[in-house]
Amino acid sequence: MTQISQSPAPRAARSNTGRFIGLATLTTVVALLPLALPNAFYVDVAIRIAILAVNGIALNLLMGYTGQISLGHAGFFGLGAYGSAVLTAHFGWSPLWALLAAAAMTAVIAWGVARVILRLRGHYLAMATLGLGIIISIVLSNETAWTGGPDGMAVDSFSLFGVPLSGERRWYWVFGGLLIGTVILAQNLIDSPAGRALQALHGSETAASVAGIDVGRRKVGVFVLSATVAAVMGSLSAHYAGYINPGIAGFLQSVELVIIVVLGGMASIYGSIFGAVVMGLLPQLLAGYEGWDSVLFGLIMVVTMIVLPRGVVPSLTARLRSTRFGTKGNAPC
């Protein structure tokens, strides 16, 4: 008997249902989590996880869906943070206008840089973005008069229309809302014609060009979007923490974002969230193994990628679908 293949409509319906369930679950967790957090320390950890998750989703749009490698993405996070800090501390700008200006400045810089470096591919692109991140970090360290140099600088508290935003609980709702909003925007982008064009670039830029896609414009656009999101999160994180130093734009922070994307799953929105949770919680859980925490962390990463080479969420999703439908599922979350 000839096996009848599934029609696209049921697959699309399952995809939409899965995304609705994922979003509903995320919203529920964000709404109820404060009830389970006993003190401000745990709320702070949750906030930092949300920051990592938003940055991870933005970077995944660039790396996972479009196939463009970036090893200097923390540099844009640092530009947003220092842009807000400098404008509020040295020029007396309000935090909201400083955030918007820092994001716009970062978008312009990213646009100019992307038009040049995105002509490169593979490890050449990786080296170029790595160099970009290092340049940003060095500039932030050397401009002592404006940035405080290696010692960093204090950042004014954030206020909106004269109302100060203070306390971990209030900031939790800001970053939790941003995380949910980022997920919604990312899902809508991926499902749109522009999102399908980005995924076509990941498959083959030549084929995408033959199909009529403006490859250069699409790559620059997603690079600017990803950098702008990082800048906004950098600005808000600076106001939340009240202090920044050039380390936030360093190479290790960029590697951390790449680990979040790869560990959780390339081309997986919820994979980025899972990766952020792991990167936020695992150092805390391993803190008791002083001297061995880095070794255990690396070992866990290696074993995870060997067992789940496509990333945790896509690999587990594929296995579940394979078990349920008797086929090899291949759809990201």
Name the descriptors.
14 helices, disordered N terminus, single chain, mainly alpha, 333 residues
Termini Cα gap: 33 Å
| Apparent shape | globular
The largest sheet has its strands arranged as 1-4
The counted number of beta strands is 4
Order of helices and strands: HHHHHHEEEHHHHEHHHH
Strand content: under 5%
Fraction of residues in H or I helices: over 70%
Low-confidence stretches: 1-11
Give me the Rg, rounded: 20 Å
The chain-level structural class is mainly alpha
Largest β sheet strand count, sense and barrel closure:
2 strands, antiparallel
Q: Could you tell me the mean pLDDT?
A: 89
Helical segment count: 14
Keywords: Cell membrane, Membrane, Transmembrane, Transmembrane helix
Protein name: Branched-chain amino acid ABC transporter permease
GO cellular component, one term: plasma membrane
Membrane topology: Multi-pass membrane protein
Helix and strand layout, with pairings?
Layout: H1 8-36, H2 40-65, H3 74-90, H4 95-117, H5 122-142, H6 144-147, E1 153-154, E2 158-160, E3 163-165, H7 168-191, H8 193-203, H9 205-210, H10 215-241, E4 243-244, H11 251-264, H12 269-285, H13 293-307, H14 312-325
Antiparallel strand pairs: 1-4, 2-3
Helix pairs in contact: 1-7, 2-7, 2-10, 2-11, 2-12, 3-4, 3-5, 3-10, 4-10, 7-8, 8-10, 11-12
Structure description:
This is Branched-chain amino acid ABC transporter permease. One of its GO terms (molecular function) is branched-chain amino acid transmembrane transporter activity. InterPro entries: ABC_transp_permease, LivM-like. By secondary structure, the chain is mostly helical. It has a domain at 39-249. It has helices at 8-36, 40-65, 74-90, 95-117, 122-142, 144-147, 168-191, 193-203, 205-210, 215-241, 251-264, 269-285, 293-307, 312-325, and strands at residues 153-154, 158-160, 163-165, 243-244. The longest helix is centred in the first third of the chain and has 29 residues, at 8-36. It is globular. The chain starts with 7 loop residues before the first helix and ends in an 8-residue tail after the last helix. Mean pLDDT is 89; it is low at 1-11.
